[in-house]
Amino acid sequence: MAEAPADPRHVVSPQVLDMLVCPLTKTRLTLSADRAELISVAARLAFPIRKGVPLLSLDEARNVDPEEIQRLSR
């Protein structure tokens, strides 16, 4: 079953994404393939995006496994 397209009101603009950095390492964030998370390769953390708002709190982040980091680095 195909996923429903994201609500355009809940999509983070590319201009905003270019300004955001990891709150821990201050490095660039990568948008996940499903556009639901911003991933910090340096910190191995994924920050959720809810209703178009990136939640860059360490309390909200999840740990990213090394295999997922390798896929992103390709």
From TrEMBL:
Matching InterPro entries: Trm112-like
A Pfam family annotated for this UniProt entry: Trm112p
Domain of life: Bacteria
GO cellular component labels: cytosol
Matches recorded under SUPFAM superfamilies: Trm112p-like
Protein name: Trm112 family protein
